[in-house]
């Protein structure tokens, strides 16, 4: 079984020509799974032959604006009868409290953020412990990580393959446990200098080394990361394959 990963946005909330806001797509078992939905994601997807009609599962790591900036346009677009032709439900996966967050968006935008009846299904996950969700032959596990109280990392499994997406995180033993035995870890390495709630490239390597994953994809770069060799920094503490994410990076597992 082949798994395809597309990094749609490898940056942050800082406007930056080289990098868009966070988003990563995984094609697995005929499903399109999208991790985060930063501003501009829906339009950028079209550059990689991905369409918002085809999103089967949307996994939100947390509710910071740079990770959910296109949620409002996405929900609004589902109401465009001439352009949104999906007939079967899509899932939104998020931490406990998402429905309250969504309710506040509805207070602002009313019915315009309500997809056609029965089209959107929501599953909330615990912020205190590992949790899991199964859809057909896909298994999705989550773990809380150290960023904000509602931050989650995700592990996507099917056909003996496993991809882990960290979202924003500082050092998290829960993430190390979640990523054990995975094929790929998509891990933030936000800044070359330490910022609480995030990892440096050296820290990212050290964390990845404890998971045993053979391939590490570094992403969520603030502009200063492009002024240094993040791969070399990470390689000080991690001996596996290191991939520096760029918008449009495509990997096969």
From TrEMBL:
Domain of life: Bacteria
Alphabetized SUPFAM superfamilies for the sequence: Metallo-hydrolase/oxidoreductase
InterPro entries: Metallo-B-lactamas, RibonucZ/Hydroxyglut_hydro
GO molecular function, one term: 3'-tRNA processing endoribonuclease activity
Domain Metallo-beta-lactamase positions: 20-198
Matching PANTHER family: ZINC PHOSPHODIESTERASE ELAC PROTEIN 1
Protein name, per record: Beta-lactamase domain protein
Organism from which the protein derives: Desulfobacca acetoxidans (strain ATCC 700848 / DSM 11109 / ASRB2)
Species classification: Bacteria, Pseudomonadati, Thermodesulfobacteriota, Desulfobaccia, Desulfobaccales
């Amino acid at each position: 079984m082949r798994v395809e990963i597309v990094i749609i946005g490898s940056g942050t909330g800082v406007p930056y020509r080289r990098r868009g806001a966070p988003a990563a797509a995984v094609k697995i078992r005929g499903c399109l799974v999208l991790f985060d939905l930063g501003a501009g994601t829906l339009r950028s997807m079209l550059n990689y032959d991905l369409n918002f009609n085809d999103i089967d599962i949307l996994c939100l790591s947390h509710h910071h604006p740079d990770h959910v900036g296109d949620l409002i346009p996405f929900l609004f677009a589902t109401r465009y009868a001439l352009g949104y032709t999906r007939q079967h439900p899509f899932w939104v996966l998020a931490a406990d409290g998402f429905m309250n967050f969504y309710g506040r968006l509805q207070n602002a935008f009313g019915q315009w953020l309500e997809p056609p009846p029965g089209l959107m299904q929501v599953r909330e996950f615990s912020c205190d412990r590992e949790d899991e969700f199964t859809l057909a032959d896909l298994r999705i596990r989550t773990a809380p990580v150290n960023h904000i109280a509602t931050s989650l990392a995700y592990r996507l499994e099917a056909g003996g393959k496993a991809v882990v997406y960290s979202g924003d995180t500082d050092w998290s033993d829960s993430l190390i446990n979640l990523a054990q035995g995975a094929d790929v870890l998509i891990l933030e390495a936000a800044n070359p200098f330490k910022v609480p709630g995030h990892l440096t490239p050296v820290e990212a390597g050290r964390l990845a080394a404890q998971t045993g994953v053979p391939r590490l994809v570094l992403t969520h770069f603030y502009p200063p990361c492009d002024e240094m060799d993040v791969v070399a920094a990470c390689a000080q503490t991690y001996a596996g394959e290191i991939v520096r994410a760029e918008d449009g990076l495509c990997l096969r597992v």
